[in-house]
Amino acid sequence: MHVDYKVEEPPLRVAQCGQLQLENLGNYKNKTVKQITRDDEERKAKAKDSARVRRTEESEYFEELEKLLHLTGPPPSSKQTSLDKTSVIRLSLAYLKSQNVLQNGPHTTN
Fold first, then answer.
1. pTM of whole model > 0.70?
2. How many helical (H) and strand (E) elements, i.e. helices and strands, does the chain have?
3. CB of 72 within 8 A of CB of 80?
4. With the C-alpha atoms ordered 10, 15, 18, 24, is the resulting torsion angle positive or negative?
């Protein structure tokens, strides 16, 4: 037995003046294609800027943490100028664990 599945798409109507009316589509209702495209481009630009700010802030925190650990950087044989984020986190955890052992003895490792 063969069953055909039909995917129903949202109803679209083209009104006068080239305005596309979309029913049941929230923010896109009664907007032109140009308006939808502009809104989408603005949303993407905002998201891109937010991500850039977040990455910059994160990098600054990692640089500060690297300085607090008194690290000299990667090995001399490496071409990198600073440690990667995973190494900074790994060394930070090792430092914190060693401080815990020095303060509380080896029996408390949490």
1. no
2. 2, 2
3. no
4. negative
Q: Give CA–CA dist 54/69, Å, rounded.
A: 23
Instruction: Quote the longest CA-to-CA distance of the chain.
Output: 79
Check if the beta carbon of residue 29 is closer than 8 Å to that of residue 21. Answer: yes
Query: Span 75-102, mean pLDDT?
Result: 84
Which residues are CB-contacts of 32 (< 8 A; sequence separation ≥ 6)? Answer: 18, 19, 20
10 Å Cβ neighbour count for 101?
A: 13
Phi and psi for 80 in degrees, rounded to 5? -75, 150
Q: What pairs with residue 12 in β-bridges? A: 22
The pLDDT of residue 1: 57
27 CB burial (10 A radius; 0-12, 13-18, 19+) = exposed
Whether residue 83 contacts residue 91, with contact meaning beta carbons closer than 8 Å, is answered with yes
Q: Considering the chain, what is the average pLDDT of its residues? A: 76
Task: Report whether 22 contacts 28 (CB < 8 A).
Answer: yes
